[in-house]
Design goal:
- This protein has one domain: Electron Transport, Fmn-binding Protein, Chain A (Pnp Oxidase, Chain A).
- Helices cover 17% and strands 33% of the residues.
- The protein is globular and about 65 Å long.
- The two termini are 26 Å apart.
- The mean pLDDT is 95.
- Bound molecules: flavin-adenine dinucleotide.
- Flavin-adenine dinucleotide binds next to strand 5, strand 6 and strand 9.
- This is Pyridoxamine 5'-phosphate oxidase family protein.
Length: 227
């Protein structure tokens, strides 16, 4: 497990240097941390048998590494250790509706993390990584639900991807064609349509035994915003 805190500025490498729409880029690690903390699903891009594979998967972040897990038989996880991968986290905050279709866009926060993940084999670190991942997706469930057995741990791969090399992009605000350009005076409604994702109400498993009430940590998440 990495212990040294990462620098407050994200590095500009050949991979992470913003080229297009550079003004939406941020080099602040705090912005990366906030984007990672706001979600729990990423897309892991990895080359498997010479073909790109982009797999949606849950993650946990401890601020220095991203933990990704799955079956030991998972092709994307088997190919990842030793290979450069890219994990992307995206939060869509709304549609940007401009006066021209060309200027339409999306308000968003997104992060891309590059690196060569390592396979976590140390049993204690593996448990800690899985706990971190569980805490990110379902805080309070580790220790409430049964923790993994040795057999389940052996059937699970855990990868740790350093957060050292990462990039962030954020777009906020109205469309860009309202103050200048040929369409500024066009009588077309323009603005944004915000988008939020939120948890609904808990739905009990029909097989749930009598008298088992949801715990406070789950009740607290009802209606809570994601992203
Ligand atoms: C939900 C969503 C929808 C989008 N829709 C479109 C679309 O339809 N058309 C379009 O052109 N663009 C779209 N974008 C922006 C898009 O993600 C790219 O930023 C942009 O297209 C520039 O791509 P590029 O290939 O030229 O990257 P470059 O500018 O060449 O990328 C250089 C480096 O910048 C970093 N980078 C680039 N994009 C991002 C990002 N989004 N987040 C974090 N780091 C990044 C990466 O490290 C990358 O290697 C969308 C973004 C989001 C989040």
């Amino acid at each position: 497990m990495r212990r040294t805190p990462l620098p407050p500025a994200l590095p500009s490498t050949d991979r992470t240097r913003h080229r297009r729409l550079r003004e939406q880029g941020s080099d602040k690690r705090a912005a990366l941390d906030a984007i990672l903390a706001a979600g729990f699903v990423c897309h892991l891009g990895v080359i498997v048998d010479g073909v790109p594979m982009v797999v949606p998967t849950v993650y946990g972040s401890d601020g220095t590494e991203l933990y990704l897990h799955g079956s030991v038989a998972s092709r994307s996880l088997v190919a990842s250790p030793g290979a450069t991968v890219c994990a992307t986290v995206t939060h869509v905050d709304g549609l940007v509706l401009a006066r021209s279709v060309f200027e339409h866009g999306v308000n968003y926060r997104s992060a891309m993390v590059y690196g060569v993940p390592r396979l976590v084999t140390d049993p204690e670190e593996k448990l800690a990584g899985l706990r971190c991942l569980t805490a990110q997706c379902a805080p309070g469930q580790w220790g409430y639900a049964r923790v993994p057995s040795r057999k389940e741990l052996a059937a699970t791969s855990l990868l740790a991807l350093s957060l050292e090399e990462a990039s962030v992009k954020i777009r906020t605000g109205p469309p860009d064609d309202g103050t200048s350009g040929p369409d500024a005076d066009r009588p077309v409604w323009a603005g944004t349509l915000p988008l939020t994702t939120a948890f609904g109400a808990l739905v009990a498993d029909p097989a749930l035994g009598e008298g088992i009430a949801p715990p406070p940590h789950l009740l607290a998440r009802e209606g809570g915003r994601v992203g």
